[in-house]
Design a protein that fits this description.
By secondary structure, the protein is α/β, with parallel strands linked by helices. 29% of the residues lie in helices and 22% in strands. A 9-stranded mixed β-sheet has the order 2-1-11-10-12-13-14-15-16. The chain has a 5-stranded parallel β-sheet with strand order 4-3-5-6-7, with helices on both faces. Strands 17, 20, 21, 22 and 23 form a 5-stranded antiparallel β-sheet that branches. Bound molecules: adenosine-5'-triphosphate and magnesium ion.
Length: 601
């Protein structure tokens, strides 16, 4: 055992109720693919701007197709609340994004200037993202449910020059803070209808009058393209900077991890306010020339199934919170819908409980492919990907071109160093911090305005992810917990995910969130917050039954000592369980940054 690893921990490899899923027959050789893959080769699969003028995401995602035989292919299909749809072909998208770039230019917004959006998932949002790239400006999304303060913070930190929004959102969230944003020169309303509010512009009118746009800005691969704020699960959100070269990673990972092919109808359920909704809701699918579905509404179980069935979705990329919601609603809800077009389901954002992977097989005829990445990594890094067998409960293996490792930590949680090098954990199943070797194209190039924080994310040539994980003997990575969430109890290191997954196996449990609370004897003990499935009522007998159930599975040292029922767990707006908030509330501590907390259901 390497010095500094946590020897006391017991980590079951595959949960007892789950069999490893059968290996499909068409798998390519993982080692061989990894050995032959290089990012430079991947770069060559995308053409770059004509005439060797550089690299621009919008060219690869839109104009390259519009200039070729996919011009009339449906690029984006928007599903409205009533189920009706509205589409943009690649040619239409090229035209509209060109006009938008032209509008920016006419307003004096240039290379490197920041353009923000604050809208729902409407066509104008997608035109804004890609048109901003075309102009060589930098795009930054704001989630439409943010209040005025989070909007102000992000606009200020990002130095936003222009903002695209709707009239209602402007009045409610931007007008009250406008005088505190001197750098914000232009607010463009998508629905001004000829009568913009004072100090705003009518985007549709400007688009109509815009002169035809010339050449796409000759951005270089290393030019800044995107500013993306993290989910704020562990604290104040950080602004991760991404560059145009990232598109190479979106392309490669779209193929490896999501198995995208040009004739796919692909649905990524994430909002572009979060990195998944941009990297995989816009860029990756369009670079592959597929048809991407955008649902403009908030979703419930029936609507998820309806969209999957009615739009003949073939590849679906979603999140554990959505899948758990469907599971909660019962498998028979899936039965009434024709999901025969669906051939690949993937999930990201939070640990995916093994039970959900296996349930997917029943409900969709497909297991769910979990994958791992972060706002900072810009693209998928570790995945149960199309060409490798799934291990339920595992995040999968590093994608080709990605070098991952487990780094040993010292008592303070810092990486253990030896002669300027970090100490890597080499033996299977020992826990440490998940680290990545920098060098992939969608790697973040900084936290805007926080150089020191960025610097601290690296040690000995590795990027430290802040997540704890272990690697099994076959090279699969297993999520243990965020560095900050891990519980130390009587010398054991306990990952909340393991405990939450066990609790979910109880017949009454819909979802669970687990934290450590101080204990004079053990240091910390495990406390669980449990949401029950419909039809179950909280009772003392049920509480004891669930605790007993967890004890049998996990042993008394790891099972929750305390358990509270809760009608709903606090989550980020991107759907992640907020353990730091459960803990702050439990201990009566300040709640910290709550800008990304979802309003309780
Ligand atoms: P913040 O950094 O502001 O605290 P955040 O880390 O939640 O927020 P994101 O970049 O959106 O912001 O999320 C990335 C994190 O989500 C990962 O570091 C990891 O903790 C978690 N995550 C993502 N995918 C998975 C997965 N498949 N399994 C387990 N955890 C995952
Ligand atoms: Mg993070």
């Amino acid at each position: 055992m390497t010095a500094g690893t946590d020897t006391s921990t017991h980590w079951p490899t595959i949960p007892k109720n789950v069999r490893a899923l059968a290996v499909p027959p068409n798998l390519v050789d993982y080692d061989e693919t990894c050995a032959t893959f290089t990012w430079d080769e991947a770069r060559k699969s995308l053409s770059g701007l004509p005439g060797d003028r550089g690299r621009n995401i919008a060219y690869e995602a839109v104009d390259r197709h519009a200039a070729g035989d996919r011009a009339d292919h449906e690029a984006l299909r928007f599903v409205r609340g009533d189920g009706s749809t509205h589409s943009l072909s690649y040619a239409e998208l090229a035209e509209q994004t060109g006009r938008f770039a032209s509008v920016l230019r006419s307003l004096g917004i240039g290379r490197g200037d920041r353009v923000f959006s604050l809208t729902g998932r409407i066509p104008a949002l997608y035109v804004t993202v890609l048109g901003t790239f075309k102009n060589g400006s930098v795009f930054c999304p704001l989630f439409s449910a943010f209040g005025p303060e989070p909007v102000r913070q992000r606009l200020q930190l990002g130095g936003g020059r222009a903002l695209v929004t709707t009239r209602a959102l402007y009045r409610k969230k931007v007008a009250p803070i406008r005088d505190r944003l001197p750098e914000l020169r232009h607010v463009l309303l998508v629905d001004a209808d000829g009568t913009p509010d004072p100090d705003t512009l009518d985007l549709a009118a400007l688009m109509r009058e815009a002169p035809p746009y010339g050449e796409i800005a000759a951005t270089q691969g290393e030019d800044m393209a995107l500013l993306h704020f993290t989910s704020g699960t562990t604290g104040t959100p950080k602004g991760a900077v991404h560059v145009h070269d990232a598109v190479v990673a979106h392309y490669a990972t779209g193929r490896f991890a999501l198995d995208l092919h040009p004739d796919d109808v692909y649905w990524c359920t994430a909002d572009p306010g979060w990195v998944t909704g941009t990297s995989y809701g816009i860029i990756a699918p369009l670079v592959h020339g597929v048809t991407a579905i955008v649902d403009e509404e908030e979703l419930d179980a029936d609507r998820w199934y309806r969209v999957l069935a009615e739009q003949h979705v073939s590849v679906w990329y979603t999140a554990p919170t959505a899948l758990r919601m469907l599971m909660k609603a019962g498998t028979d809800r899936a039965a009434g819908h024709d999901l025969s077009a669906l051939r690949f389901v993937a999930s990201v954002g939070e640990p995916l409980n093994p039970e959900v992977v296996v349930w997917g097989q029943e409900a969709f005829g497909q297991p769910v492919h979990d994958n791992w990445w972060q706002t900072e990594t810009g693209g998928i890094m570790i995945a149960n990907y199309a060409a490798t067998p799934i291990r339920p409960g595992s995040m999968g293996r590093p994608l080709p071109g990605v070098e991952a490792a487990i780094v040993a930590r010292d008592e303070t949680g810092a990486p253990r160093m030896q002669g300027g090098e970090v100490v890597l954990v080499t033996e299977p199943d020992a826990v440490g911090e998940l680290a990545l070797r920098p060098g992939w194209p969608s790697m973040f190039r900084g936290y805007l305005g926080e150089e020191e924080r960025y610097r601290r994310a690296f040690a000995g040539g590795w990027y430290l992810t802040g997540d704890l994980a272990r690697r099994d003997a076959d090279g699969y990575y297993w999520f243990v917990g965020r560095g900050d969430d891990v519980i130390k109890s009587s010398g054991h290191l306990i990952g909340p995910f393991e405990v939450e997954s066990s609790l979910m196996e109880h017949e009454a449990v819909a979802e669970a969130g687990v934290i450590g609370i101080p204990d004079p004897v053990a240091g910390e003990v495990v406390k669980a917050f449990v949401e029950l499935l419909p039809g179950w009522e909280p009772s003392e007998a049920l509480r004891l039954d669930i605790i007993g159930f967890a004890r049998k599975r996990l042993g008394p040292a790891v099972a929750p000592r305390e358990l509270d029922f809760t009608p709903s767990l606090p989550k980020t707006r991107s759907g992640k369980i907020l353990r730091r908030l459960l803990k702050a509330r439990e201990l009566g501590l300040p709640e910290g940054d709550t800008s990304t907390v979802e309003a309780p259901r």
